[in-house]
Automatic annotation (TrEMBL):
Keyword Membrane: no
Species name: Herbaspirillum lusitanum
Keyword Flavoprotein tagged: yes
Protein name per Swiss-Prot or TrEMBL: Deoxyribodipyrimidine photo-lyase
Cofactor(s) it depends on: FAD; (6R)-5,10-methylene-5,6,7,8-tetrahydrofolate
Length: 492
């Protein structure tokens, strides 16, 4: 009759599956969030004291607590190892059920299995429900009942499932509002205060300087802003210098907005017709479907977290040794000599965000121009992306490395200069992050080494000093990559 909702990556109060089920089934519902030392301590051990995500969560948790208090509840916040703390808290509160949203990442599954086992010893249960995705696990399958491995037919089946008679069910918001009187405030004798960042060993990052909106209110602000330009999404999304995408990924990561709300928004715009922005909305919905797709792939093929989706790609021999280490450092620090690649890496380093087009460009550059194992890049993104999600990140990297399901064919190798000319024609994005190239004419800014001495002089640029020469020749790298990937061709 009393239960606990364990908030994890669903930091909101509205349209919340676990909260809804708990409120519907229990007389009194407590709410908790654990700053999990199993996740945070390794960061501190690596010397990371400023992590935008930790601060984003901290701010979002504060807003969630305030929202719960305003409706008669409140959040119990702890800084501890979740697998022990949740069962201990359940015992302290005398609850028999803990509700949480299903998590699909291998480590989270392990954690939840441990929590469930431990709760069981005290006669309590862990009840998980779908919340992060529209369709999970086996909900969208091929006609022969197998999981999809190609995106377009998956998307068609995904759309068809929504259009079916019971389709509305999957998009319907969980009407939490109607049951909020069941929320119980933290009992006075139960420790619940939100610890300060410093108490947990962290410092403020540059989140405020970036003016990155956090919490449910932040998600709403970004969504309102995006709805006005959703119609242009299809044509604007590929150009990093313009405000094309929604910037909602970090909010989807931490659940400050519900995926159902976003999918409904897209569908409404689509139904308004192509002229009213429906065409852009359809492209955006398709991106949200990619998100479901990669969650589904990770569920059916958890091995992709370590290995290639297509096993024959594990035979590829990546560059190793000192040169590879040096090249990797140059890539990480944005000094490859390819301006679009470098500007993109400065974007992630300074803000924790990287435009989707640029994620593809830098991932291709690392794997196919530098011949470095995609897992190195995947790990770097995991450390730096605010929106890091194992499923989408792994999917994106394996797409670029050609080892993934429905990936880019291995012989398709992005030319970093051509990509730059196409998607940042005036070099506006490049100049934002690399001011030393600001005065170069547009036709040179994509490849400064092609500038004449006179052009360099006019631009006040000394190559090799102000900006590096390219660390690799693209044409030669391309050749080496085709040879490297020959093992795959043989296997095919
Ligand atoms: P929008 O263009 O507004 O898209 C809306 C939402 O759709 C995104 O927030 C995201 O949830 C989803 N989405 C869009 N594109 C994709 C995609 N290709 N795959 C899966 N979901 C998608 N996305 C992450 O959320 N986390 C990651 O760790 C991540 N790593 C990536 C790594 C690589 C190498 C690549 C190529 C892509 C990666 N993506 C990742 C996908 C995509 O780049 C980001 O989702 C997007 O740039 C986020 O910005 P946005 O919210 O403004 O996107």
């Amino acid at each position: 009759d009393k239960s606990l909702v364990w908030f994890r990556r669903d930091l909101r109060i509205n349209d919340h599956a676990a909260l809804y089920y708990a409120l519907k089934q229990s007389r009194a519902v407590y709410c908790a969030f654990i700053f999990d030392t199993d996740i945070l301590d390794p960061l501190l051990k690596d010397g990371v004291q400023r992590d935008r995500r930790v601060e984003f969560i901290h701010e979002s948790v504060a807003e969630l607590d305030a929202a719960l208090r305003a409706t008669g509840g409140g959040l119990i916040v702890r800084h501890a190892a979740a697998p022990e703390e949740i069962p201990a808290l359940a015992k302290e509160l005398g609850v028999t059920a803990v509700f949480a949203a299903t998590d699909y990442e291998p480590q989270a599954i392990e954690r939840d299995t441990a929590v469930a086992a431990s709760l069981k010893q005290h006669g309590a249960v862990l009840l998980t429900c779908k919340d992060q995705v529209i369709f999970e696990k086996d909900e969208v399958l091929t006609q022969t009942g197998r999981p999809f491995s190609v995106f377009t037919p998956y998307k068609n089946a995904w759309m068809a499932r929504l259009a079916a008679a019971d389709g509305d069910f999957f998009l319907k918001p969980y009407p939490v509002d109607a049951y909020l009187s069941g929320l119980a405030p933290p009992p006075a004798n139960v420790r619940h205060a939100l610890p300060a960042l410093a108490q947990m060993g962290f410092e403020k990052s540059n989140l405020q300087e970036l003016r990155m909106p956090t919490g449910m209110s932040g998600a709403q602000q970004l969504l309102d802003d995006f709805i006005d330009r959703i119609g242009q999404y299809g044509s604007a999304r590929d150009y990093p210098a313009i405000k094309g995408p929604s910037y909602l990924s970090v909010h989807l990561r931490f659940g400050t907005v519900s995926i159902r709300t976003l999918a409904r928004t897209a569908l409404q715009a689509m139904h308004a017709g192509p002229g009213a922005g429906g065409a852009g909305a359809a492209v955006w919905l398709s991106e949200l479907t990619w998100r479901d797709f990669y969650f589904m792939i990770l569920h059916h093929h958890p091995r992709v977290a370590q290995r290639a989706f297509k096993p024959e790609y594990d035979a590829i021999r990546w560059e190793q040794g000192e040169q590879a280490q040096e090249d990797f450092a140059a890539w990480c620090e944005g000094r490859t000599g390819y301006p679009l690649v470098d500007a993109a890496m400065l974007q992630i380093n300074q803000s924790g965000y990287m435009h989707n087009r640029l994620r593809m460009v830098v991932a291709s550059f690392l794997t196919k121009d530098l011949g470095i194992d995609w897992r190195w890049g995947e790990r770097y993104f995991a450390q730096h992306l605010n929106d890091f999600d194992l499923s989408a990140n792994n999917g994106g990297w394996q797409w670029a490395a050609s080892s993934g399901c429905d990936a880019q064919p291995y012989f398709r190798i992005f030319n970093p200069v051509t990509q730059s000319e196409r998607f940042d024609a005036d070099g506006k994005f490049i100049r934002r992050y690399l001011p030393q190239l600001d005065k170069l004419p547009a036709r040179r800014v994509h490849a400064p080494w092609t500038a004449t001495p006179a052009e360099l002089q006019t631009a006040g640029l000394k190559l090799g000093t102000d900006y590096p020469y390219p660390i690799v020749d693209h044409a030669q790298a391309r050749q080496r990559t085709l040879e490297r990937y020959a093992v795959v061709k043989k296997a095919e």
